[in-house]
Request: fold
Amino acid sequence: MDALERIKQQVTQNPIIVYMKGTPDFPQCGFSSRVVKALNACGAEYAYVNIYEDEEVYRALPKYANWPTFPQLYVKGELVGGCDITLDLYQSGELQKMLKEATVAV
Reply:
């Protein structure tokens, strides 16, 4: 399975997933740290991929959704955005609603 197929599978199998530098317990950049703090503050369970541990995903992800930077947050298979968009949504209260809807059983 190539990297783009793996990304598609990860994004569709996880209601909330963040591609980040490092891990939620040890983010390796300030932007990833801020996104993790926002997700944790919402109380949502989420999957993550440390892009430093998978070079193929690191190189393919910007092509997947035409988004050049990290972190990248996906909810219900759709790209939400990076740090700035995630924080704006969090501050407006929209992120909490979005995450809650994503984890409601179908």
Notes: The radius of gyration is 13 Å.
